[in-house]
Amino acid sequence: MLSPIELIIKKRTGKELSSYELDFLVNSYIDNKLPDYQMAAFLMAVFFQGMNDREIQYLTEAYIQSGNKYFFDKQTVDKHSTGGIGDKVSLMLAPIVAECGAYIPMISGRGLGHTGGTLDKLESIKGFKTDLSQEEFRNTVETVGFSIISQSNELVPADKKIYALRDVSGTVESLPLITASILSKKIAEGAKNLVIDLKVGTGAFISNIDQGNELGRLLKSTSEALGQKTEIVLSNMNSPLGYYVGNGVEVYEAIQYLKGKKIPDLDELTKHLAVKMLILSKNFDSEQEAKRNIDKAITSGKALERFARFIKAQGGDDKVCEKPQLLPQAKYILPIKAKETGWVRSIDGRNIGYSLMHIDSGRKNLDSIIDHSTGIKIKPKVGDYINKNDIIGKVFCNNKEKGTQTANIVTSSYFISENKVSLEKIILKNHRGEHENNNFNQ
Ligand code: URA
Questions:
Q1: Which residues lie closer than 8 Å to 112 by C-beta, 6 or more apart?
Q2: Cα separation of 401 and 408, whole Å?
Q3: Catalytic residue (choose from 121, 166, 272, 306)
Q4: Which CATH number does 329-417 carry?
Q5: Whether CATH 1.20.970.10 fits 4-50
Q6: Confidence tier at 430 by pLDDT (50, 70, 90)
Q7: pLDDT above 80 for 361
Q8: Which atom number of ligand 1 is nearest to the Cα of residue 109?
């Protein structure tokens, strides 16, 4: 009989765990035989000691085997983001790519650490369900072209439970744990192809390009060892993505985008990922052809129509696409003012993510209800010029005192330079050490 304490100590002292030992830890935890404190100690040991490639593959397999594995008789493809601020890309990307002919079975996550989760955003739509049965998930993918659901007791329950524990035990930013968490969901859901949007920067879990390249290597080698074709895109998370951060307000922004509103960083990233997905899934042979079809999906309004069909299929009120005021509305809108004049040198995205907790206590405590009406809008990105006292954004809140605190945190998350700072590119070059931004690793 294996002893959890011995396995924790084995990892703590940097030794390799076998597939059998990792299965034992994961299975004992989901069967409630291993208490949270022992799993948290094990996660912290992994955090400090890391895992080799073999252990990461075994851990990913243990997560997958904790539940069912789905299979689709179609050319399936999915995208996963490693998490950032204002990242509502899935909400636009999935209907666009589905409109271009691909099938996307997507298991998504909730807010983790300072980052928001796609599921929380979708749940700001009245009636929307993320816990579909296997049959409902399959039907939605096959009829609408995509479905977005949560991990469940049937699907990667190990990630569901361990993800929540990492969130409260300071063990989120571990490359082996991130790899197993992402890939277990992406393999169990039945995606044959996968594009990973690996975010690097102040608002991401990965803050420097070397770590980004290492996580990219781990994700690609682990998923391909487990039979999934994978492409890694490194993208910039030094500035929040788009203008809105928060659940309901991000759904609002996604709908505006699908209606044709130009949001440059969001547009560039969404289309870049969409092209990669459509080439990987063999829907198109050339990038030009994929791009043409992506543009058509948006300008024809068909991607928005598909988003509405998806909302309806998952029990939500699809009228939000026509009437965004049906999304939860906050009582107050407070201004956010710049504290200095100059070029935005950097933005502490992590601080901004955590600042939302001041207006939304739900994100701090897994059991409390999230207030989907709260959020922020902020315009300046790294490299933009701002004047002291300019209104650089807004806070949407239901409590003025908390909203003011959030506005102050956002203001102080902007670092200003007297010298011109170059605007940053959203797509980073994804081979080792080569990137086009001046402002990384500062
Ligand atoms: N996304 C996930 O699904 N898991 C992580 O650990 C980080 C980002």
A1: 83, 163, 166, 167, 172
A2: 11
A3: 166
A4: 3.90.1170.30
A5: yes
A6: low
A7: no
A8: 3
Residue with tokens 């571990």: 174
**From CA 236, how far away is CA 346, in angstroms rounded?**
12
Q: With b meaning 16 or more CB within 10 Å and e meaning fewer, what string describes 235-248?
A: bbbbbbbbbbbbbb
Cβ of 181 less than 6 Å from ligand 1: yes
The domain defined by 77-324 folds into Pyrimidine Nucleoside Phosphorylase; Chain A, domain 2 (3.40.1030)
**Structural domain boundaries of the chain?**
4-50, 77-324, 329-417
pLDDT in tens, 52-92: 999 999 999 999 999 999 999 998 999 999 989 999 999 99
Q: Which of 181, 223, 239, 355 is catalytic?
A: 181
Q: What is the mean pLDDT of residues 121-138?
A: 95
Helix boundaries (H) for 100-227: 118-122, 134-144, 157-167, 175-188, 209-225
Query: Which residue has better confidence, 368 or 399?
Result: 399
For the entire predicted model, the pTM comes to: 0.90
Question: Are 78 and 147 a contacting pair, CB within 8 Å?
Answer: no
- pLDDT at 442 (0 to 100): 34
- Here the tokens at position 90 are 């899935």
Read off the tokens for 43: 């996660």
Mean pLDDT of 402-409: 95
Our mutation pick for probing the ligand 1 site, out of 59, 82, 151, counting the most ligand atoms within 8 A of Cβ, is 82
Whether the pLDDT of residue 289 is over 60: the answer is yes
